[in-house]
């Protein structure tokens, strides 16, 4: 588990113009005076951009967003506290408990295990496709689910 210092913020930015998009791409490309971690790159106007901001940079970064009239919202004030809260919630999967929960965040390793279990259980319906790697060089799998058709054909002789 990654432990963040307290008060790292998650800020969601809504780029509504090409100018805003250019500014966010400048920050994303490493020309940022702030300690930022983009959860996804800025791609186009209208696509949300989630950014983790270091506590020391958050106040000035927010002022910068406001001065540029960017639409944003602070989604999480303290990421570490939110993660700890998620882990202590009743729906959180604990390794000692049996099963996989679709009602909570799961690690990529657990997701892959669940996909493999499903494929083993229903090989006629589920195939797994390797779609490449994440930016962290981790294998990404997706499940292709086919409808399992049980044809109950009666021959003409049975009519």
TrEMBL record:
Database matches in InterPro entries: M14A-like_propep, M14A_act_pep
One Pfam match, by short name?
Answer: Propep_M14
Q: Output the Gene Ontology terms for molecular function.
A: metal ion binding; metallocarboxypeptidase activity
Question: Which key words tag this protein in UniProt?
Answer: Carboxypeptidase, Disulfide bond, Hydrolase, Metal-binding, Metalloprotease, Protease, Signal, Zinc
Q: Which residues form the Carboxypeptidase activation peptide domain?
A: 11-86
Which GO terms are recorded in the biological process aspect for this UniProt protein? proteolysis
Specify whether Iron is a keyword of the entry. no
What's one GO-annotated cellular component? extracellular space
**So which cofactors does this thing need?**
Zn(2+)
Q: Which family does it belong to?
A: Belongs to the peptidase M14 family.
This chain's protein is named Zinc carboxypeptidase A 1
Its ancestry begins with: Eukaryota, Metazoa, Ecdysozoa, Nematoda, Chromadorea
């Amino acid at each position: 588990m990654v432990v963040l210092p307290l008060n790292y913020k998650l800020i969601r930015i809504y780029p509504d113009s090409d100018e805003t998009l250019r500014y966010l791409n400048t920050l994303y490309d490493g020309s940022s005076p702030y300690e930022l971690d983009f959860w996804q790159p800025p791609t186009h106007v209208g696509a949300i951009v989630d950014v983790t901001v270091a506590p020391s940079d958050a106040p000035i970064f927010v002022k910068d967003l406001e001065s540029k009239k960017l639409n944003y919202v602070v989604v999480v004030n303290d990421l570490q506290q939110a993660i700890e809260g998620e882990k202590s919630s009743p729906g959180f999967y604990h390794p000692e408990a049996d099963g996989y929960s679709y009602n909570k965040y799961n690690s990529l390793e657990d997701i892959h295990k669940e996909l493999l279990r499903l494929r083993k259980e229903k090989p006629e319906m589920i195939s797994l496709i390797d779609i490449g790697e994440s930016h962290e060089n981790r294998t990404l799998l997706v499940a292709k689910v086919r409808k399992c058709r049980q044809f109950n054909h009666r021959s003409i002789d049975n009519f």
